[in-house]
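Batch manifest, entry 17 of 40.
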Amino acid sequence: MLTLPDCKLTFVCGPVASGKTHLIRTWLAKDNHHVIFDGTGEFLDDDREQIWANPRLLYDRIKENPYCYRIVYQPGIRREEDFGHVLKAMWWIDQPKLLVCDEWHEMCSVGGVTPEVEMLLRFARHDKMGFVGASQRIADVNKLYTSACRLNVLFQTNEARDLDAINERWRCADMVMALRPLLIDDVSGVTKQIPQAVVIEKGHSPYIYDFATESVVKNGEEGTSDESPEADSGGSPLQSLGDDEGTNSGGEQAGGEEIADPANSGPTGNGV
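Output type: structure tokens
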């Protein structure tokens, strides 16, 4: 199974019912210190603790037991403002933690990033915070985020704008378009076909990961892979995925202003 990097930035992208949510749920299954910023209601029926538009309550709950919390945070109508409060509430917990946000393009759009998102890009790894941003449309997600990610996972899409954005950032649109997609019987909910994804890790060329075999697709097999780092192929194949709605060494092409990473600086301001 693909491993989620500890205390790093990660991006998962694909259309509705592509496998994004199942992958995130799999990553979170054994994690006991995470918050899901659920702006789409995807986790409303989840067995995790639910907190509704109350960042102070979130902060108090995590502070009460920073070693074990599995929380779904439902934001109010001012989602950007709520996200900023949630981020600040988690900054001040001096333990490894993970924040997950769906529809990430709404918080980190190509039009610019908020001060809170800029703070996330600058300091997350210094503050023991892991972050997973997920979106249906990579073309709408700011390059500053995808270029900062240690891991990018792209599911199959035929959307022209997204393929153009993928080519501009990683030159692997053909790989993404040729992936095996997720297929589900809408009536029975049975998975008919388990998908593949293109994976871009920093320091490696894009490669294809097959969730059916939980292994990297080698050259000459279905799909192609120019350079494939060794993957963890342990565990059983995924059987249910139906709960979703140029480069150098895996980096993005130059574009956009780089965010500086001061050696002796950290987030400022008061906690919630």
